[in-house]
Structure formats: C-alpha cells, structure tokens
C-alpha cells in the first residue's frame, strides 16, 4: 500500500477512515481547514492557488498516492438549511453550498495528476450522495444540495475521461455513505428508518473495502455504502 491522502480530514467519516487505514499500515497524509493533532497533517485554507501549491510541494517531495479521498462538503450551517420548497431557494445559500460541495473538490481534481502515479493503479474517491442522482430523484426538495452533488458527479465523470487518457490505471469513485451518525446528519436523524443510521466506523470499513478493490471498479462509478451502483 502506497501513501494515501484524505482531504476534509476533520469529518467523522474521515477520522474513522484515517484510523482504519493507519491501522492497516498505510501512511496517511491529511488536509483540513482545521488543525488536527496528527502527523502528516496540513491545515489549509481551500483556494485554487493554495491547493495547487500544496500538490506541487507533494510532487517535489516525491510522494505518489495510491488512494485519494476527497470529503469536502456541507449540508447545512447556522444560516443554511436544505430547502423544503422552491420558495426557500436563496442565491447566496446556493453559491455557498456549490462552492464547498462542487468547486473545492474540482480544484483537487485539477491537481490529481500531480499526485497519482502514471503507470500503476490508483483510486480517487469523492464523497457524493444518492440525492445527487437525477434519475433517482423522486421526492424533490433540497435544491442546492441536490444540484451541488449532481454537478459534482458530472464534473468527476468528465474529469475521469480526460485524466485516464494519461493515467490509464486511475479510477474514480463517487461514494454515497448513507446516513451517518455525525454533526452533518444530526438535524435529520429522526426520520431515518431503524437500522439505517450508520456509525462512521461502519461507513469507513465499507469504503475501504470498496475503494481498495481496483478490479471491480469501473473507470468512474457511483456506489453506495453497500457496494451497490447508483444511477447517475
């Protein structure tokens, strides 16, 4: 197992993932907006320039990554909630959700070829959501979050086509973790069916199992926590 990168490392799933990967002997680099008390961690203000510079420094230091996990994303903040009705749609809230869920991951994808090897297997995983599936939209609502994840799915699929022209063994995984017991889902847990609220450790274990199995992944796939493909 080569070196691994976890972006958005302060989230509950990311923390559980790091613990599992390091327990298996991997060297894990991590990046987040906040400082974490661990080795190989960088506190980074996400911008196109700072992400590019950080990736350049990793390449200069000779690091190649077999797996990259990009966990940037928000569902709600103190001032933003998922819209239950189109009348709740606000431009400023939409832009903030789009920036975090779509634009920031795209900046990382722009730099992927600096980080993954050209001649050996690698997997780039981005945290998506089933709600971003256009064909699976049956309930409506949650306009900004749905749109940001649908856009992320399309941008990742498009980037995968381009990047694989030069990095033919690099695969891309869009991962739906299910409803995980975390701050992100806390306001919405009361409607979760019994047995469908997952621990971060459970999600991390399933994600590792899926993302490490290079042979079963398509060039760019959209999967849930149970290794079931989700239609785009």
Structure in words:
By secondary structure, the chain is an alpha/beta fold. The protein has one domain: Rossmann fold (3-Layer(aba) Sandwich). The chain contains five helices and nine strands. The strands form two sheets. Strands 3-2-1-4-5-6-9 form a seven-stranded parallel sheet, sandwiched between helices. A two-stranded parallel sheet has the order 7-8. Helix 3 packs parallel to helix 4 (143-163). The longest helix has 21 residues, at 143-163. The protein is globular, with a radius of gyration of 17 Å. 36% of the residues are buried.
Give the structural class: alpha/beta
Mean pLDDT: 93
What would CATH call the class? Alpha Beta
In helices, the fraction of residues equals 25-40%
Discrete helix count = 5
**Which range does the strand content fall in?**
15-25%
Identify the strand order in the major beta sheet: 3-2-1-4-5-6-9
**In the residues, how many domains can be counted?**
1
Per DSSP E runs of 2 or more residues, the count of β-strands stands at 9
Radius of gyration computed on alpha carbons: 17 Å
Second rung of CATH, namely the architecture: 3-Layer(aba) Sandwich
Shape: globular
Can you summarize this structure?
By secondary structure, the chain is of the alpha/beta class. It has 5 helices and 9 strands, in the order βαββαβαβαβββαβ.
């Amino acid at each position: 197992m080569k070196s691994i990168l976890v972006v958005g490392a302060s989230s509950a799933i990311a923390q559980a993932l790091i613990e599992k990967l390091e327990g298996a002997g991997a060297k894990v680099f991590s990046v987040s907006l906040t400082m974490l008390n661990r080795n190989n961690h960088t506190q980074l203000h996400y911008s196109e320039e700072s992400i590019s510079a950080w990736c350049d420094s990793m390449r200069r230091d000779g690091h190649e990554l077999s797996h990259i996990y990009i966990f940037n994303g928000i569902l709600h903040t103190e001032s933003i909630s998922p819209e239950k009705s189109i009348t709740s749609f606000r431009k400023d809230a939409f832009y903030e959700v789009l920036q975090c869920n779509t634009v920031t991951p795209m900046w990382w994808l722009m730099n992927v070829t600096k980080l993954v090897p050209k001649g050996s297997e690698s997997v780039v995983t981005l945290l998506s959501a089933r709600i971003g599936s256009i064909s699976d939209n049956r309930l409506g609502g949650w306009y900004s979050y749905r749109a940001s994840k649908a856009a992320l799915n399309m941008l990742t699929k498009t980037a995968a086509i381009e990047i694989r022209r030069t990095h033919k063994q690099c695969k891309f995984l869009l991962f739906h973790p299910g409803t995980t017991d975390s701050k992100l889902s806390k306001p919405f847990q009361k409607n979760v069916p019994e047995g469908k609220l997952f621990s971060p450790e459970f999600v991390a274990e399933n994600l590792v199992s899926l993302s490490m199995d290079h042979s079963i992944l398509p060039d760019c796939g959209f999967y849930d926590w149970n290794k079931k493909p989700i239609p785009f």
